[in-house]
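Quick question, first post here. What does this chain look like in 3D?
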Amino acid sequence: MNAKMRRFTSQLNHFYKEHKELWEIDDSFDGLEIIDADNRDQSVLSMIRKNRKGDLLVCVFNMAPVERKDFTIGVPISAVYEEIWNTELEEWGGVWKEHNPTVQSQDGLWKDYEQTLTFTLPALGASIWKVKRKVRKTKSKTSDKK
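> Answer (accepted):
Ran it through. Tokens below.
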């Protein structure tokens, strides 16, 4: 376990340095957008971190010892999202063999967001997502006629 923790810490440091979204705009509120800081019932905190180019990472932290299947949050962009960090991976002492599958956001109102993202959130863990590719929203035929 000690070796796994050392490897995790080393990889986390590399991950942090490689992802400017986590630190580039640290001196301004422009680099941080809170998705949900009020989830007391499930003890989950979610936020968006941004870099100067506008790239973003969706960061979700579960402070409870309960895995959250079909956990849903709001996201700002209609896109396919890829999980790029999960603290519950086996290589770092967890029990997951692989990342969550890639997920496409869905239309749906969630707080101030018009898109939602649903995935499994690890117990006492973090899950970080990036936009893999944006998805164009198409207008329905009924809305075109209006």
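Strands lie at 32-39, 44-50, 56-62, 68-75, 79-86, 103-104, 106-110, 113-121, 126-134.
The chain has a mean pLDDT of 92.
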